[in-house]
Amino acid sequence: MTKKQPFIDSSLHPSQTPTADRPFSVLLVEDLASVRAALASELRLAGVSHVMEAANADQALSQFEQFRPDMVLLDVRLPGDHDGYWVAQRMRELEPGGWTPIIFLSGLDGELDVWRGIEAGGDDYLVKPVRPIVLAAKLRAMRRLHEMQQRLVTLSDELHVANQRLNDLVELDPLTGLVNRRGFDRILHAEILAAKRDNSPLTLMLCDLDHFKRYNDAIGHVEGDRCLRELGRVLRDVCMRPRDVAARYGGEEFALILPNTPRAGAMTFARALGGLLKTRNIHHPDSPLGPVLTLSGGITTCIPDDVTSAVTMVMRADEALYAAKAQGRDRFFSFEMQMDTVAQRNP
């Protein structure tokens, strides 16, 4: 059996050591206590503020999993059934998608030994005895690589957040603050898939303001925009559950996506929406329905199946909306129940 070589060659020591601007941790795996102590001392001189020590494979894996060091110095020869190559392979399995620099330490300097170390997951291979200046240089290089990786992770996270904010802006109606048509299409498609998977009812409502053209003609588009913003606030107020979505479908037409809402619940929701709008008491100067602004809507509710699509749901809700207008406006009509909220309220 080859005799273990001392780790440190004290014939040369670096005149300058790297300084750490943040805590940097190293897991030192070495079974000989004397060598481990000498190595730990050299690591601290090289600027490592936190040195963890392990004497065998089990201790090494336990500390690696628990503390996730910034770097590992790993002796190839370890007591027991598992050597350093095996430990490195297990460490790589414990960090899928991540990367911790692993430097092997060994008295063996053959090409096959170096190849085995790299194949096992190592990033470098130092042959004992190691001069302190070489150790300091390797630490400096590995630390630069580690910090570069951390910056890339941070930049990736920031890019993800920025893209999400951009998507939110792209799917936002600037006038009302509601989801716009693009966002509506995406969300409705996603909710159809979710309702199909969960075998749960999904309700879609299309609604628009009654005689809104006459409103604009009477008091102007500036007041019309103010009216649309107020309706946006009303729709947000009635969407109490996290997944309820109010959207501006186009012009004075709006849409509501209500997951897990059955037919009867949809009719109750629609009556509440119409009542809430009336309590806002938005004056309509030229409505044949009365002095305040009112709303008409069409409702469709289904448990989606293989033939259900966003197009078919919108078509049913749109047909129901026309039925509500044909029956006098200021009401919601259910496509499936063939009944409007006024008839349901007064059977």
Low-confidence stretches: 1-21
Please report the distance between the alpha carbons of the first and last residues. 97 Å
Q: What does the largest sheet look like?
A: 6 strands, mixed
Q: Name the beta content range.
A: 15-25%
Q: Can you describe what's shown?
A:
This protein is of the alpha/beta class. The chain has eleven helices and eleven strands. It has helices at 33-45, 57-67, 84-94, 111-119, 132-170, 181-198, 212-219, 221-238, 263-279, 310-326, 341-345; strands at residues 25-29, 50-54, 71-75, 102-106, 124-127, 202-209, 245-250, 253-259, 295-302, 332-334, 339-340. The strands form two sheets. It has a six-stranded mixed beta sheet with strand order 7-8-6-9-10-11, sandwiched between helices. A five-stranded parallel beta sheet has the order 2-1-3-4-5, sandwiched between helices.
Topology, element by element:
Layout: E1 25-29, H1 33-45, E2 50-54, H2 57-67, E3 71-75, H3 84-94, E4 102-106, H4 111-119, E5 124-127, H5 132-170, H6 181-198, E6 202-209, H7 212-219, H8 221-238, E7 245-250, E8 253-259, H9 263-279, E9 295-302, H10 310-326, E10 332-334, E11 339-340, H11 341-345
Parallel strand pairs: 1-2, 1-3, 3-4, 4-5, 9-10
Antiparallel strand pairs: 6-8, 6-9, 7-8, 10-11
Helix pairs in contact: 2-3, 7-8, 8-9
